[in-house]
Amino acid sequence: MTAKPAAAAARATVYGYPRQGQNRELKKAIEGYWKGRVDADALRQTAAELRRGTWQQLAEAGVHEVPTGDFSYYDHVLDTSVMVGAVPERHRDAVRADALDGYFAMARGTQDVAPLEMTKWFDTNYHYLVPELGPDTVFTADSAKQVAEFKEALALGHTPRPVLVGPVTYLLLAKAAPGVAADFEPLTLLDRLLPVYAEVLADLRAAGAVWVQLDEPALVQDRTPAELNAAARAYRDLGGLTDRPKLLVASYFGRLGEALAALAKAPVDGLALDFTEAGAGNLDDLAAAGGLPGKRLVAGVVNGRNIWINDYEKSLATLGTLLGLADRVDVSASCSLLHVPLDAKAERDIDPQIARWLAFAQQKTEEIVVLARGLASGTDAIAAELAANRADLASRTDAAITRDPAVRARTAAITDADGRRSQPYAERTLAQRAHLGLPLLPTTTIGSFPQTTELRTARADLRAGRIDEAGYEERIKDEIREVLSFQEKAGIDVLVHGEPERNDMVQYFAEQLTGYLATQHGWVQSYGTRYVRPPVLAGDISRPEPMTVRWTAYAQSLTDRPVKGMLTGPVTMLAWSFVRDDQPLGDTARQVALALRDEVNDLEANGTSVIQVDEPALRETLPLRAADHAAYLQWATESFRLATAGVRPDTQIHTHMCYAEFGDIIQAIDDLDADVISLEAARSHMQVARELAAHGYPREAGPGVYDIHSPRIPSTEEAAALLRKGLEAIPAKRLWVNPDCGLKTRGWPETRASLENLVAAAREIRAELPTEAA
């Protein structure tokens, strides 16, 4: 049957787009600027060319309204802090001296000034810079970036829609500035912030903006009545302005819930909602609220966070229902396309059949355009696209890669006993201390050491055939020997081999597991200039052979000190991959856990006494609504225990987490039953140590004393001060000393100096401790 055309022609649009360029041109230009090889004008020129290319590609694909202002040199929340004048006092001199260098100082810090704290953007692997606010914060409008980029697009003949982080989300993402009472609520500054937003909106209106998008993803989380009232007040005031463009309030990553009714009644001109799996309830809620009569609805029916092709028939059914609920229905992705790679057609090494199932940013843009055309003109207008889509979906369902009977049988046979250690922690820890013989406040690192130019060159040489496998392995051995030698001389107690053979903590394992696919060009921004290539989890998972045993055993043969085995945990293997969407996440996690269990047991059998299974994504993947937490945490913690519980009592299991808010999952961290946990703590000034203590966490912990996401070198005194804060919360006999995270992004000079200072701080504090502390 042919669908009827929409009463008003549907348009195609997107909320935002990847920033980096096809070959990560932005990353290269920014890092060149930091190193002095690229000047500011050249950096700005590269940025302008990337913006121009993005808008042109969107327009040529058929997108009617292109986003502006979503481009960023580092982070869009940091850009918002600049826009509203929320520059911390410690950074103001740098910003006054040079706006660009001051901007990067806020993001990365300098040797003399610490950066802003960094944490995860909702339940994604994107990191944002946390605004620091207090009761004395004075906001001032600076719309230069937003206006300039709007005018750029307008001059090129596009229809631009500026995109801003909304005022409520901005304040809800903020924290109390250093020195401000911890119970300070940034949302109390809303009435002070709204006039600044009004000024920015007026500037954009004066520049010619017809629509402006205000992103409010924080409203898809559980919110108090006071927070919901603040949102209603914000959009009553902004919507009531006379000198403003039309306002499109966008939410994504889930169901808007209680906030939908308030926004639907607000005097704004449109809402953008997520109608993919995470936000499926928005359809019912919108109908219950009486729809959006007289307003524009931007319907996010193409999933902006995964890489699987859209189901056109399902999306068109949703869009058809929405036609009766708004004055105008336009089509978009569920969120910014920042979270997916650029172009699936660039992947030449993926099986052509599987490639038919993949949609990166460019392909998602094409899907949006097809759906908008089908909604506007009827399904006959897209008959060929519908037929091809049905065939592609069917080929995925029937593909052999998706199901492995042996894996499914093993997963079905899991028992509760498989996820329990043979002894409780109180007994294990005695066996581990006797076996390992570590000092008080043992020192270690998180795993990786600098990925030098020589290492990257060696990998490129191997791929290009300039060296053979034997030559490559000699280079890896040389690097492992150097890393171990440095750690021994520095006085580190539990060593790592440095991971020189690894490209990425998820990709390295994915390339050795069945069911995973690796991309060559699937880069996605994690933070700043840090880009990752999330592998594609397409089918059932198993481990054909050991993945890390050889290099870990080689490293252990070179030293008498314990060398940690290093693995990535099952939740993180899912979270930092594009995971299959055709079965529950918990089922996939158990498959990965069993593969890792085999690796953990093989490491132990080959002489590894300390094994770290990293789960930095445990908090990140926590659902945004509290009602969904228990089910997620049940399978997430179960999968970690399943991976690690098969070892002897005297084998010490570590885990690591970083750059997230851990306070609301401390019980889940406890439920992992790891012997030692290391966590990010330097930028947050040991907040997590206090949270562990408040929970009564009974195991050993290493809250980080070295912020590795900044190029600055912490002094011995600085590390010692953080350790003293840590000791206020965690007894010395359970406290470890380590950096916040792995060191692969750092250079050797700063790594050497920072770790030497870290060890010196541990020795200093040990000397201060009473004998009975041991």
UniProtKB/TrEMBL annotation:
Catalytic residues at: H709 (proton donor)
The Cobalamin-independent methionine synthase MetE C-terminal/archaeal domain covers 441-763
Q: Which family is this protein grouped under?
A: Belongs to the vitamin-B12 independent methionine synthase family.
Molecular function terms, GO-annotated: 5-methyltetrahydropteroyltriglutamate-homocysteine S-methyltransferase activity
Q: Where does L-homocysteine bind?
A: I446, G447, S448, E499, D614
- Provide the residue positions that the database annotates as binding Zn(2+): H656, C658, E680, C741
> What the protein does?
Catalyzes the transfer of a methyl group from 5-methyltetrahydrofolate to homocysteine resulting in methionine formation.
Q: Which InterPro entries match?
A: Cbl-indep_Met_Synth_N, Cobalamin-indep_Met_synthase, Met_Synth_C/arc, UROD/MetE-like_sf
* SUPFAM superfamilies assigned: UROD/MetE-like
How the cofactor is bound: the record states: Binds 1 zinc ion per subunit.
* GO biological process annotation, one example: methylation
Q: In which pathway does it act?
A: Amino-acid biosynthesis; L-methionine biosynthesis via de novo pathway; L-methionine from L-homocysteine (MetE route): step 1/1
- State the reactions this protein catalyses: 5-methyltetrahydropteroyltri-L-glutamate + L-homocysteine = tetrahydropteroyltri-L-glutamate + L-methionine
Its protein name is: 5-methyltetrahydropteroyltriglutamate--homocysteine methyltransferase
Instruction: List the top taxonomic levels of the source.
Output: Bacteria, Bacillati, Actinomycetota, Actinomycetes, Kitasatosporales
Pfam family, any one: Meth_synt_2
Q: Which gene encodes it?
A: metE
Q: Residues that bind L-methionine, according to the entry?
A: I446, G447, S448, E499, D614
Q: List residues of the Cobalamin-independent methionine synthase MetE N-terminal domain.
A: 13-323
Recorded E.C. number(s)? Answer: 2.1.1.14
Q: Which UniProt keywords apply?
A: Amino-acid biosynthesis, Metal-binding, Methionine biosynthesis, Methyltransferase, Repeat, Transferase, Zinc
Question: So where does 5-methyltetrahydropteroyltri-L-glutamate get bound?
Answer: R24, E25, L26, K27, K120, W576, E620
What cofactors does this protein use?
A: Zn(2+)
Record's keyword annotation contains Methyltransferase: yes
